[in-house]
Structures are given as structure tokens and as C-alpha cells.
Automatic annotation (TrEMBL):
Family label: Belongs to the PhoH family.
UniProt protein name: Phosphate starvation protein PhoH
UniProt xrefs under Pfam families: PhoH (PF02562), PIN_4 (PF13638)
Segments traversing the membrane: none
PIN domain boundaries: 10-151
An example Gene Ontology molecular-function term: ATP binding
GO cellular component term of the entry, any: cytosol
Keywords: ATP-binding, Nucleotide-binding
Keyword Transcription among UniProt keywords: no
PANTHER family, per the entry: PIN DOMAIN-CONTAINING PROTEIN (PTHR30473:SF2), PROTEIN PHOH (PTHR30473)
UniProt keyword Nucleotide-binding, yes or no: yes
Cross-referenced SMART domains: PINc
Organism: Ectothiorhodospira haloalkaliphila
């Protein structure tokens, strides 16, 4: 279906879930006006209590509206409050130029008999229908994260849209992969403007040409016709870039806690995870691609062997795939244990040893308990991690705001690793294009102390690989 092209100033009727999802939505509609039905304010009032992320968002919305109100009189409210971008003067995308309108009188429009019952959603639909009748020369659009409400609106002839402003990308296939395949004629066209040198046993190249404008720091370069050429971009300035040949973790000479890379992307991932100059690493891939195993192996090697970090902190968002199993007894670590099964399974693989017998295994477990900690995301606010190796699993279930809260916990000497699969999102109202993991991959790709790799090939087992492809 081709979308109708709409011109002129519009009136957006916001559903409650839009404001619960993004408190700054009030300021993201540029020159257009925003209309808040009274039932939306009622729902916001009911959702303000608690310590959840939604409750915090609701309270922030109320503060924004209160600040916009100021000393406004009744006639000012009826005319509409100017959206001046409260507290966001330095951000152009949060500087609304329209007006905020409230429902100041009862709406006489009657919904068709096909929508029985008196629910908040139906009240919002009735409000939108009345606004269409009162403003025939203006496009009235209902904005909601609720798919079913948008379907009902379309059936009733109301123009409805999802809230798109929080989307990082138009299509998840455009997500930065962290790699770049060089063309077959790369050496022929760039060899004349290339310098090479060695430093501390590593090989570097300085490459000049228009192709370097497409590269990002910590991006990996490869050629399919030359498997031995694997390089990492260290620095990009205008049309010049410095690249470094990567360490080969596929061979027995370079193992990480007994683990070797099984494919090209895993090799790139280990180079990022083992590089102390890279403070933030994001790994995206389907089940069985080795995200957790590689991350834990690198963490153990740098914490227990190289003493680069004091301890490993593992955490993840507690969103169940099926029905919730209810409250869990015990301490913070004991409550998190059922959620950390994937991490613990990989930890068991990395620490199993036949030498030393039962005593050796017991000693290993005690060592791990003292250096590997499991923490809950619910208690991260206000904390600062110094010289820690932080693993954030299932990061695709985090919102961009939650992701910012967690990454800003990192103090000096801390490395943060985010793992996830954007194809498996369990959090309501989050999609592949507005997930916190997608957000952070896109925003960090220009920073020289971060790196990202999308793992392509499953290495868990032939059964798991076939299942992920064909089921």
C-alpha cells in the first residue's frame, strides 16, 4: 500500500504509550501541533507510581508538561502552549516549534456500534474522530505504539502512524557490520600512495585515497581472494587511514583461555575483546555464533592471567521468553542465577579440566566466585565500575535510555561488552530498529575506542546451525 503524501501543518494525537516509551516525544514533532486527550493524562497519572522505567518516564512527562504550563492562563491553554524545547536548547531535534493542545471540552462524536465498550483506546479514537470533524482542513494523525489501536483507527478512517522518531535505522539490514570487503583492484589502485612500517612486532599501513572515507575506526578490512590479509582501521583522517594487521587467533599459537577463533568474524571479535585500547565492544549475532564464549574467554584471560581487570561483572535484562516464574528467593546473585544460564554454561566449558581431580575443580570454582560476579540491572543507578570487565548479555532488550544508563557506569580502566541478537527482542514496544543495542552500535561506530562485529556463522553444532537456518 502506498502511503498518502501529506503536506502542511499537522495535528498529532498522542497515545499514552508513546509518552511512556519516550518522554521527549513532546518535542520531536518539529513545527506540528500535539494534542493530548484527557484520558491520556488520566492514564499517565495512573502509571506514575513505582520504580520501573515506565514510571520514571511518566513522571518526566509530567514535569515537562508542568514546565510548559508555567503561569499559563485558561485562554493560553485553549490556544495551545508553545513547545519551546524545555531543557533542550542545545539539541536541534528536541526543539519543538508547534503547540501543545489539551482536551478542554467534552467530545460529542459517537463511535460506531462495531466498537462496543468504553475503554481508554476507544475514547482516544472518539477524540480523533471529533478533531477530524472540527478541523477538516488539517490532517489529524493518531500516533501510537499499539498496533491494534492503529488498525482500529485505520478501519474508522483515522490516519494513524507508529512513533518513528526513536528509530535509529529505517531497516535493520543497514546496521553497521564492523567489516568492509576491499575490492579486487585495491592493491593496484592504492599501492603507490601507501606507506608501511613495523612497530612492537605489529605491521602498519598508511593508505591514502577516496576509499578511506567509507571506513570507521576499529573497522576490519578483508579480501575474499586473499584470506591472509586481515587488517583493522586504527585511525581515519579525511582521505588518509592507518590500518594494522590483526593477530591471527585461528591458529594454535594464539589461543585465548584455550579457545581459538573458528571463522573470520570470530577472529575479528577476539582482536577487539583482547585490545586494551578498545573500551567498548558490541557483538551481534544469531544463537550459536560464539558471542558469549568468546567474550568470557577474553575476560578470563585478561582478568586471571594478565591482571588487566580486577573482576568480571556479568548482567542481563530480566525479560522472560515465556510466562514469568514469579519471585526468586536468595541474594542478588542467587536471584540472577536462573537468568544467567547461558553465561554460566559457557563458563563451565571454559573452566572444565581433568587435571587436579575434585580438589582442583573445587579450587577453580572458588577462584571464579571471587573474580566473576553476577549483578542485576535494577541496582545499577549511581554505581561506578573501576577496572572491571563488564558483560551485558541480551542487550537487544534494552531501550536506548537504559543502555546509556548502564554504559555511563563505566569508570577508568573498565571495558564494556554488549552481546545480543536483534532478531530476538522480548521487550514490549522495542523493535530491531529502535533497540538500545542498535542505537549504541550506530552511535559508537565513529569513536576510535569502540568496535563492533556482526557474527555471521553458527559454530555451536551442526544441529543448532541447521535449526537456526531452517526453523
Amino acid at each position: 500500500m502506498v502511503k498518502k503524501e501529506i503536506h502542511g501543518k499537522r495535528l498529532f494525537v498522542l497515545d499514552t504509550n508513546v509518552l511512556m516509551h519516550d518522554p521527549t516525544a513532546l518535542f520531536r514533532f518539529k513545527e506540528h501541533d500535539i494534542y493530548l486527550p484527557m484520558v491520556v493524562l488520566e492514564e499517565l497519572d495512573r502509571g506514575k507510581k513505582g520504580i520501573s522505567e515506565v514510571a520514571r518516564n511518566v513522571r518526566q512527562v509530567s514535569r515537562f508538561i508542568d514546565e510548559l504550563m508555567g503561569d499559563a492562563r485558561q485562554e493560553d491553554i485553549a490556544r495551545g502552549l508553545p513547545l519551546t524545547g524545555v531543557g533542550f536548547a542545545d539539541q536541534a531535534d528536541l526543539n519543538g516549534r508547534g503547540r501543545l493542545l489539551f482536551q478542554t471540552h467534552a467530545m460529542a462524536s459517537r463511535l460506531p456500534d462495531t466498537l462496543p465498550g468504553n475503554t481508554p483506546d476507544h475514547t482516544i479514537l472518539g477524540t480523533a474522530l471529533t478533531l477530524q470533524q472540527e478541523r477538516p482542513d488539517q490532517c489529524v494523525t493518531l500516533v501510537s505504539k499499539d498496533i491494534n489501536l492503529r488498525i482500529k483507527a485505520t478501519v474508522l478512517g483515522i490516519h494513524a502512524e507508529d512513533y518513528y522518531n526513536d528509530q535509529v535505522l529505517d531497516d535493520v539490514n543497514l546496521l553497521y557490520a564492523g567489516t568492509h570487503e576491499l575490492p579486487p583492484d585495491f592493491w593496484d589502485s592504492h599501492v603507490k600512495a601507501m606507506d608501511s612500517w613495523q612497530e612492537s612486532g605489529r605491521t602498519f599501513y598508511r593508505i591514502t585515497g577516496p576509499i578511506t572515507e567509507q571506513w570507521h575506526p576499529s573497522q576490519f578490512l578483508y579480501r575474499t581472494d586473499e584470506p591472509t590479509f586481515l587488517a583493522m582501521v586504527r585511525q581515519v583522517k579525511t582521505s588518509t587511514a592507518v590500518v594494522e594487521m590483526v593477530r591471527d587467533y585461528t591458529g594454535p599459537r594464539h589461543t585465548v583461555w584455550g579457545i581459538n577463533a573458528r571463522n573470520r568474524e570470530q577472529n575479528f571479535a577476539l582482536n577487539l575483546l583482547m585490545d586494551p585500547e578498545v573500551d567498548f565492544v558490541s557483538l551481534v549475532g544469531a544463537a550459536g555464533t560464539g558471542k558469549t564464549l568468546l567474550t568470557l574467554a577474553a575476560g578470563l584471560a585478561q582478568t586471571l592471567e594478565e591482571n588487566l581487570y580486577k573482576e568480571i561483572i556479568m548482567t542481563r535484562v530480566t525479560v522472560p521468553v515465556g510466562e514469568d516464574i514469579g519471585f526468586l528467593p536468595g541474594t542478588e546473585e542467587e536471584k540472577m542465577a536462573p537468568w544467567m544460564g547461558a553465561l554460566m554454561d559457557n563458563l563451565e566449558v571454559l573452566t572444565q579440566s581433568d587435571s587436579g581431580g575434585d580438589w582442583g575443580r573445587a579450587a577453580t570454582q572458588e577462584l571464579l566466585k571471587s573474580r566473576v560476579k553476577i549483578r542485576s540491572l535494577n541496582f545499577m543507578r549511581g554505581r561506578t565500575f573501576l577496572n572491571r570487565y563488564v558483560i551485558l548479555d541480551e542487550a537487544q532488550n534494552l531501550t536506548p535510555k537504559q543502555m546509556k544508563t548502564l554504559i555511563t557506569r563505566a569508570g577508568p580502566g573498565t571495558k564494556v561488552v554488549c552481546l545480543g541478537n536483534v532478531g530476538q527482542i522480548d521487550t514490549p514496544y522495542l523493535t530491531e530498529t529502535n533497540s538500545g543495542l542498535t542505537f549504541v552500535v550506530d552511535r559508537f561506530k565513529h569513536w576510535e575506542h569502540s568496535g563492533h562485529i556482526t557474527l555471521q556463522r553458527g559454530e555451536r553444532s551442526r544441529l543448532a546451525d541447521f535449526a537456526s537456518t531452517n526453523l
